[in-house]
Amino acid sequence: MKARHKRLVFVTIAIAGVAVAAALALSALQSNIAYFFSPTQVLNGEAPKDKVFRLGGMVADGSVQRKSGDLTMTFVVTDTAKKVTVSYTGILPDLFGEGQGVVTRGKLGGDGVFYAEEVLAKHDESYMPPEVQDAVDKAQKMGVAKKDAGQPQSSVNY
């Protein structure tokens, strides 16, 4: 075998090895990915039905309920436009509370309840996860647009 053929075989094997490694890495990442959805997106059917995803928003005031004698909690997550009920069994973070930003990870049940495997709360007074802030901002803009629809717009600029 000539030196040129040996180099060609080596390059072909190297390319095949890189392709196999890339395919394995992508398949490992794909199985661990959890996309973020707001309550509006979940109720509009954009969230996957049988896969783990993240749901984020604000915990609605007066919605936190604990089952007696159990670690199961239910609460409502809202983006100010729509609301999704979340059920979580376990110990909640210390910073979890009504009116606070929260991101949960889990699956949507057939009954419309989001069953969380993990609950993350914001870590200080002024922080809100970027995904939650974007979802709240979009919901508020949609609410303002719906409220203003049908009302005549003034052409006077102040």
What would you say this structure looks like, in words?
A five-stranded mixed β-barrel has the order 2-4-5-7-6. The protein has a domain of 106 residues: Nucleic acid-binding proteins (OB fold (Dihydrolipoamide Acetyltransferase, E2P)). It contains three helices and seven strands; from the N terminus they run αβαββββββα. With 158 residues, the protein is an alpha+beta fold. The chain starts with a helix and ends in a 10-residue tail after the last helix.
Report the top-level CATH class of the domain at 36-141.
Answer: Mainly Beta
Largest sheet: 5 strands, mixed, barrel
- Reading the helices and strands in chain order gives HEHEEEEEEH
What's the rounded overall pLDDT mean?
81
Do you know the CATH topology of the domain at 36-141?
OB fold (Dihydrolipoamide Acetyltransferase, E2P)
Strand order within the widest sheet?
2-4-5-7-6
**How many strands appear in the DSSP assignment?**
7
Radius of gyration from CA coordinates? 24 Å
Beginning-to-end CA distance, first to last residue:
84 Å
CATH superfamily of the domain at 36-141: Nucleic acid-binding proteins
Structural class: alpha+beta
Uncertain residue segments:
147-158
CATH architecture of the domain at 36-141: Beta Barrel
Strand content: 25-35%
Shape: elongated
Give the number of helices.
3
Helix percent reads: 25-40%
